[in-house]
Request: fold
Amino acid sequence: MLNISYQLYCSRNFPPIGATLKMLSDAGFTQVEGYNGLFNDLEGLKAGLAETGLQMTSSHVGHQLLADDPAGMLQIIKDLGVKKVFAPHIAPDQRPTDAAGWAAFGQRLAEIGKPVQDAGLVWGWHNHDFELTKLASGEFPLDLMMGASDDLMMELDLGWVTRAGEDPVAWINKYSGRIAAAHIKDVAAAGECTDEDGWADVGHGTMDWPAIHTALQAAGCDHYVVEHDNPKDHQRFATRSLAAIQNF
Reply:
């Protein structure tokens, strides 16, 4: 069974959250992925999920937030019913600059995530493009991070893999068995969707989804999270993307 979810960050510019959740439920979604910015109105979020029947099966949580308050963040995660937790980003001024630094960061991530794993939940990293830019030593930061601990899983963002100039299928194959979820994100053709930062609705861009879907299935990934970093119309994006994935 393919689990299709929606990253709520896509709709951050279309408040309130209750209306977004109803839109997604009406569109046919049954699952959503959260992010820690939504935790500022936890009761509103819970009410919206309860009213629509949507399940928050995964969420992004900043690794430093988890490190600073593991018990508090874990309680929120459990209360929301989240099963998979992904650290989504590291600020440019905090990023390591060499291989040893990225390996150490990967080890730190694994340690930060131990309370999550001890609770029986999945813990992993969500990539952008900077982890797929080779270092002077010729290594990829993402490889160094993932190589630091076998316990660290991955939410592979296929749009950012492509933006980095890499082949999504090759990276899926490389980390077969460790991709707990995938961000299904499409890249517009050159010069198109410039008012949406060059991203496209899933199935309406340049990504080779038949090949990607086949590779994800072979890699054991059954959790697809649709994402668009800056849609002008989140309902259009949600409905067209869901329809495209259902036709994979």
